[in-house]
Design brief:
This protein is mostly helical. It contains 11 helices and 2 strands, in the order H-H-H-H-H-H-H-H-E-E-H-H-H. The protein is 79% helix and 3% strand. Helix 1 crosses helix 2, helix 2 packs antiparallel against helix 3 and helix 10 crosses helix 11.
Length: 275
């Protein structure tokens, strides 16, 4: 029998799927609109999660989320691929994030900690949006971005059913007590199968490499899920929001994509640079 929570998850996913896939396919300003809407919601959820009540902090942290992904909409496709400013921007965002985290550990002021965590969230969300925007610019039909989304969704679905059906040892009981090693393996296996089928159906990429990368991206997505869970636990929050029935907030739904997208972008950028 399907639980109420699972039914809510299925209905929410079916409602969100068409506009998300449509925006990925159309690209350009349509895709930027999707990123802008998602980025603003994620950033507002993050700031509420870390107890930020300062409107000025909201504005400052929203600016890079709203403006930086636009770079790859404005650049012609050939320039977006060849100039590759994405590498510098993502590295800077990650450096900002690491620096912010170091500062958090030094300061004793709760007010300052909140500001630092908000800046960390801005770097965290911006790096994902920049990566997705760049990845969409290197692909005429958005297959690379769609592949990432499908891998992360496969990780979630496979992890859910394998974790519920098999159970067993916990993956990280202190951070996320419901996740199991069986769920991790089940999610990775399903992501690899989806990648293999995706490569066959769309004659996209090297099949031998694609299904392996699908498993790696799924693993990175799971790490992203655990990272957000650790932040929520730090601030004693169950869900980042209540926007999506059965899922919580936008961040709860896309935390895997937020990690998988920059990772994929950096791997692809290195491939372009070395190839």
């Amino acid at each position: 029998m399907i639980s109420k929570n699972l039914l809510q998850r299925i209905i929410s996913a079916l409602m969100l799927l068409p506009p998300v896939v449509g925006a990925i396919y159309l690209g350009g300003w349509w895709f930027y609109g999707l990123l802008l809407l998602g980025g603003i919601l994620m950033m507002l959820e993050w700031n509420r999660m870390v107890s930020s009540q300062n409107p000025l902090v909201d504005v400052i942290t929203l600016l890079p989320v709203a403006l930086l992904p636009m770079i790859f909409v404005l650049l012609p496709q050939s320039e977006a691929i060849l100039s590759n400013p994405m590498i510098m921007i993502i590295v800077l965002a990650l450096v900002l994030g690491v620096g912010t985290f170091i500062e958090i550990s030094k300061t004793k002021s709760e007010k300052h900690k909140t500001v630092y965590y908000s800046l960390l969230g801005s770097a965290y969300v911006s790096s994902a949006l920049i990566a997705l925007s760049w990845l969409r610019s290197v692909d005429e039909y958005g297959l690379m971005v769609l592949w990432i989304f499908l891998n992360v969704w496969a990780m979630d679905v496979g992890g859910y059913f394998a974790g519920k059906g098999i159970g067993g040892p916990k993956l990280s009981p202190k951070i996320s007590p419901n996740k199991t090693w069986a769920g991790l393996i089940g999610g990775i296996v399903l992501a690899m199968i989806i990648s293999y089928l995706f490569s066959l159906i769309f004659t996209w990429g090297d099949i031998g490499k694609t299904w392996v990368m699908g498993g790696v991206v799924a693993l990175v997505a799971q790490m992203g899920d655990l990272y957000e869970s650790a932040v929520k636990r730090r601030f004693d929050v169950k869900d980042s929001g209540e926007l999506i029935p059965g899922h919580g907030g936008i961040l709860d739904r896309v935390d895997g994509i937020v990690s998988a997208a920059p990772f994929t972008a950096l791997v692809l950028a290195l491939y372009f640079a070395l190839g």
